[in-house]
Each structure stands twice: as C-alpha cells, then as structure tokens.
Predict the structure.
Amino acid sequence: MKQVLFALALAALSFGAIAQQRNFDAVQIKTTQVAPGIYMLEGEGGNIGVSAGEDGVFLIDDQFAPLSHKIMTAVKAVSEKPIRFLMNTHWHGDHVGGNENFGKAGTVIIAHDNVYKRMSVGGAITMLKQNYAPYPKAALPTVSFSQSATFHLNGDDVKSTHLPPAHTDGDSFVRFTKANVVHTGDVFAAYRYPFIDPESGGSVKGVLRAIDVILPTIDDNTKVIPGHGGLSSKKDVLAYRKMVATVIAKVEPMVKSGKTLQEVIDAKPTKEFDEEWGKFRKPEAFVEIVYNGLAPKKK
C-alpha cells in the first residue's frame, strides 16, 4: 500500500511540475486537414494525427490528460465515428498523457514493446526534471509490437514501424500508404532543436539512423506530420538531418579531444543554425544534449 501511495504522490508531483508551466484551460486545439480524411491536431504537446473514415477514427498520440475532452471535441468536428485505435509514437507524457482517458472510453491503444515496458515501470527524464510513476492499466497499450504493425482501415494501409533508438528506444513512425502522409513522432521536430532522451534509450547518432529509415518512404509530395512544429515536407526533413549531422560533426572532435561541456558551448557549434532552429530550445541546451550523447560513458 505504501508503494502505491508513493507512486501516486510521485505522479502528482511530476504532473504538478508540468502543469505549473502550462495553462491547459487556455489551450486551443487547431485542426489542419493534411489529406482527404487525415488531419493534424496541434495543442500543447506532441502533434496528433487523425485518420477519420467509414471504419472509425485512428489517432496518433494524445498530448496531456487535461486536454482529452478538447481533443475528443476536435475529433468529433471531423467525424462522428468512435475513436477505435490510438497509436503512441513513444512513451513521453506529452504524447501519452491522455491514454488513460481514451483507454477508459474504449479505445484500443497500440505501441512498440518498449513503450509498454517504460510506461509500466515509469522513469525519469533528468534534464527536464520530470519523474513518471508507472501508468495505470487503462493507460497502457493493449497491443504492442516488436517491429511493425499494419492497419487496414478507412481505405488505406496504415503502417507503424519501429525505428533505431533515437529520441527514445521505443520510437515508431506511422505511414498512411495511399494518402502519402507520415507521422514521425519526436524523431523529427520541425525547425526546433530536438530533445534526445538517453535515459529512455535515446541516441544522438541514432537520430540520423532513424531519419535515414524514414527518408526512403517519403517523396516530394509526402505530407509530414512532425512530433512538434508545423506541417512539413521532405525538404524540411532533409534540412533537419543536415542540421543534426553538422552539429554532431562539429561537437564530436571536441569531445574526443577532451574539451569540457562549457568549452564546447563557448565554441558555438550550432551558430549557423541558431536563428532558424533555436527559437524553442536554446542552442546551449541542444549542445549539452549532443555533448552528453557523444561523451564516453562513465563506468
């Protein structure tokens, strides 16, 4: 019983820290039609993908729990059909925070095996000063997969594919084959320096490997829903890859030569990208992420 009470208290503290930074009452859900029957919802947290058609609604991610009613309302505006499936692209709270509400409403939740594992036991994201207690049963994926899962609904083949460890070790991207739409989760963030979570199995160089898995599946006409940021295209994904690869190439030699984090920050390895990419996450914070990801692991 003490363990349960501690877990609940930990969850409350964690969510409290997040909620203090956000006024969920003021959040408005913006709906953008991406393709016939496919939409992107923007609110607070990760972008949501929606497929709405005769077979029901397929949802990708669900932001924070206090926004579930607003999200459901936004979905009802494009479809009266029930939300049958919810795919989580990874386990972070701004993408799975509404899981319990949707699970209790009867939605089937699907994610990679590692998402299920991490949600089951909880964990910490030290750099963001967040702690997550184990999620309740209703929030956990009912179905998990190791490599890929394919859904045949609303006239399309919808495939979720596990990626090499990048943002986390449970990242998946979702492709709507006929509609030519891809939801990347947080492996790709549009014109903002990304967060990489090594405590959740993330890898700085793995981001490049993951992007290189996604790129062959998209063309110049593909609509790309990023984990964060505006609706994108292949050229935006390529610009993101160039930015990450360039920063890694500049930081890695300095790490290998034994320079301290502060010395690397002072060298401004992101300078050429800061004006375009540094508006959300500060350049210094991204340099720290890259530096720590490339530094030798302490024994």
Q: What stands out?
A: Residues 234-256 form the longest helix (23 residues). The chain has one domain: 2-241. The chain is about 35% helix and 20% strand.
